[in-house]
Design goal:
Order of helices and strands: EEEEHEEEE
Distance between the termini: 19 Å
Structural class: mainly beta
Number of domains: 1
Number of strands: 8
Helix content: 10-25%
Number of helices: 1
Strand content: over 45%
Amino acid sequence: MSDFDYNPDFVVDETVQYKTLVSEFENGVEQRRRKWQNPLRKWTLRFQHRTKTEMESVRDFFMGKYGALTAFTWTNPNDSVEYTVRFVEDSFKFALKAYRLYDFDFDFIEVK
C-alpha cells in the first residue's frame, strides 16, 4: 500500500520528460545523446471541494514529509503503478471556496 493514499480529482495530469544533450559543431552537424537513461515523470494532482478534515489530513502529510525533502510512495491512478515520488514545492497552498470546503493542488516528481 502506498504512503500517499488520498484520491485526487480526475484527471491527473502526467508529464514524461527526457533530457537530451545537443552538441553543435562548427560545420553545422549536431550530435544528440541522452543525459538520463529513463524518462522523468511529473504529475499534477487537484483536490476540489474537499472538507476541512481532508485538507488538514493532506496538509499534515505534506508537513510530515517536510515539503519537498522526503520521498514517499504513491500509486498513479493513470496506470495503477506505484512510484517513489516527492513534492516539487516546499509550500502547500489551499483556498477556502465555500463554507468548510477547500481547493488545493500540488505536483509530484518521480525520484530515481
